[in-house]
Amino acid sequence: MSPAHHRAVAILADAVGRSPVKVDAEWTWGSTLVVRTVIDDELTIFIKAAADQDVHTEAAAIALARSAGVPTVDVLATGTDKQLPGGRWIITRSASGEPMQDVGRTAPTTSQTLDDLAECYTRLHQVTLPGHGPLGPGGTHAVFATWSEWQQRIIERALDQLAANGAASDHFLARSHHLCEKFATDLDAAPAALLHADLGDRELFVDPGTGDVTSIVDWGDALIGDPLYDLVRFVGGGPADDPRPAQLHPTLHACYLRRNPQHRARARRMMTFYRFHICVVEAAWEPDWAPAHIAWANQLIDDLS
């Protein structure tokens, strides 16, 4: 473990008043640090810090989700320390249940899991705050004035990266910019709600016996925006040939729209646009995925045209 990991363990031990009997540094993306610690047979806790996210704002998002009846992990403590990435930390209890990834997408309980997730999303999307996009400090508002502004900012950043890498043609870049301009009015007419915005089958914990959702973790990318974005983003961040969306989205979307028929008329068009958004972002994020994602994005632009 790095010096920052050792410092995190010391902070955790001081915060809970006990030294862990087992410590594991979790594999993470980028500048995020996560350490899993076993205190005893009945208590496993995590400490997290990140340079590119405010983990205190993540704690606020967790509190908002819990207030809406969404199962999440317990936040045990938060604090600051200059030796950790971002200078802030959060300690949470481990999630109950098992990750859906480990239970399996074809388990007999999958339909129940997706129906329960649709209910969790329905509750979450009843939470509203001023603004759009990422939550600001304290989780009391979002930082952009409009949903289209956030969408365009993220897509333009990704397109700039693709252009710099020579991964996308000028024609694709122009088509993408035009589509974003065309959709601005639709985006700003969308309802705004609290979104998890980065949920996958590793972050969704379930009871392996019943399929019920027991906990949703990793709220660092929470947004205020269109509820339909959450439906597309679920297991939507992999390569173009990732089988998960085709396996899980139809049932999840049907269960959600049955509970929320007010979104039905706009669902296909807007979810197609959000799939385009994710394709562009993932193409820029992982160069090996870029050709297939750009081809998919081109097809989505054709569909929306």
TrEMBL record:
Organism, per UniProt? Answer: Microlunatus soli
SUPFAM superfamilies in UniProt: Protein kinase-like (PK-like) (SSF56112)
Signal peptide residues on this chain, from the entry's feature table: none
Q: Which GO terms describe its molecular function?
A: transferase activity
Q: What is this protein called?
A: Phosphotransferase enzyme family protein
Question: Which PANTHER family has this protein been placed in?
Answer: AMINOGLYCOSIDE PHOSPHOTRANSFERASE DOMAIN-CONTAINING PROTEIN, AMINOGLYCOSIDE PHOSPHOTRANSFERASE-RELATED-RELATED
Domain (Aminoglycoside phosphotransferase): give its ranges: 47-245
Alphabetically list the UniProt keywords: Transferase
